[in-house]
Amino acid sequence: MIAQKLHRSKATISREITRGSVTQLDSKRHSHQVYLAETAQAMHDRKRDRTGHYAFLKTGRAFFKALSRELTRKPRVHSVDSFVHFYRDQGKACPSTTTVYRYIDAGLLELDNMTLPKKLRRRIKGYKNAHKRKNKKIYGDSIELRPAAVNDRTGVGHWEGDLVKGIRLADEPALMTLTERYSRTEIIVKIPDYHAGTCLKALQDTIDDYGAKEFESITFDNGSEFAKLSEIVGTQIYFAHPYSPWERGTNENANGLLREFFPKGKSLRAVTLVEIQAVQSALNHRPRRILNYLRPCDYYRCMA
């Protein structure tokens, strides 16, 4: 009867009654079994705390304190995943990334999902028929002309670029972002507006500042703000196909990470050079799974 009302099997109800049953004595000192929900819950909690997943909540306080400190740092360097591997590489015990997220979802840590970056990020999908306009002008050399070495990521020096905009008005400031395809190293430059001439000057200044030898090629979006980039001196500029952001997927992913610090719809006018450099440093010092948990700055330095 109980099993039917609760839509559970008889075996499940039987196990629950057994777990929560205690022996009591009546006034005549006769013993009998009584089910107590509090006893059943206490038994469940004790067994749970003895399991590996939850035992670490008590034994790993130092890890969780360090994790909370790192994930609330401004600007934040680590993700949950990168910090787990960073901590483990020091020879210290810690739970898996999946287990940490399980604790967060269960409300067992001070952290919560609202304070974390997105656990699942949007993938750039290559829909073959999406937004195709055959008459869209390409402003220079097509991505189809890139050498195989660029496509295969066989060495450093090949970059992807775009703009990250706060408010989508041509006279609003924007961030020009450059992402190195091999190491995921990031360069971020604030520009006063995103007119074509401004973008040309900002990119040329960046190439001159870092040195042309660091830039073998840069692949940009085919937006009108980049219409003058074929005039760049010191590197080869390629343009992705119109409406094909997945062709610059490395840079698109990096721009997604940037949105944690510079959200859409918020003007970039008040953003300072110091703030930009701090975010750039944070991203370049964040261990990446795709780099076997090395940092982009170290990966680039080793291969340059």
Automatic annotation (TrEMBL):
PROSITE patterns: INTEGRASE, TRANSPOSASE_IS30. GO terms for molecular function: DNA binding; transposase activity. GO terms for cellular component: cytosol. SUPFAM superfamilies: Ribonuclease H-like. Residues 143-304 form the Integrase catalytic domain. InterPro entries: Integrase_cat-core, RNaseH-like_sf, RNaseH_sf, Transposase-Integrase, Transposase_IS30-like, Transposase_IS30_CS. GO terms for biological process: DNA integration; DNA transposition. Belongs to the transposase IS30 family. Required for the transposition of the insertion element. PANTHER family: TRANSPOSASE, TRANSPOSASE INSI FOR INSERTION SEQUENCE ELEMENT IS30A-RELATED. This is IS30 family transposase. It comes from Lacticaseibacillus paracasei subsp. paracasei Lpp225. The lineage of its organism: Bacteria, Bacillati, Bacillota, Bacilli, Lactobacillales.
